[in-house]
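lol ok so funny story. i was supposed to be doing the assay writeup but got distracted and ended up predicting the structure for this chain instead. priorities right. anyway since i did it might as well share w the group, maybe its usefull for someone
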Amino acid sequence: MHRIKTWTVSIRTTLAACASARRVCRPCTPRGIVTLLERYNIDTYGLNAVVIGASNIVGRPMSMELLLAGCTTTVTHRFTKNLRHHVENADLLIVAVGKPGFIPGEWIKEGAIVVDVGINRLENGKVVGDVVYEDAAARASYITPVPGGVGPMTVATLIQNTLQACEEYHDVEDA
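and the output, tada:
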């Protein structure tokens, strides 16, 4: 119980410090995804990016990150018609809906970059993403696994944001 309480206080402190920081703390998961793309030297300029899911935590901020990265960006949501068409035309696909196997692998464009943000535990205990991994991996040039793909990047970015907020709070100058 103590660990959970400490974690909660840590997040609240980080959020408060970010709110008062001179530099803006970017949302963890979208920033982590951009870092992942940069790490693999993926040139995003001009890519047709599709974000499946319009949540305030991932979808919307991710769309802004992609726009800043030079992508032509489409955000889909529960009212989007012909979702398959959008997926089939995506050079870069970010899926964050929280529904296991929501995107079938055959929808993935050959050579596309697929980032699966979803993490879902099935009744049998297996953890899967929002994309049918095996089928999508056969078509994609890059694909993040679930678990072990976006999750660790989110945690790493949370640590970066915490450090940034701490530096701002204590007026630490860049070296």
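The chain has one domain: 27-154. The first helix runs from residue 2 to 20.
back to the writeup now i swear
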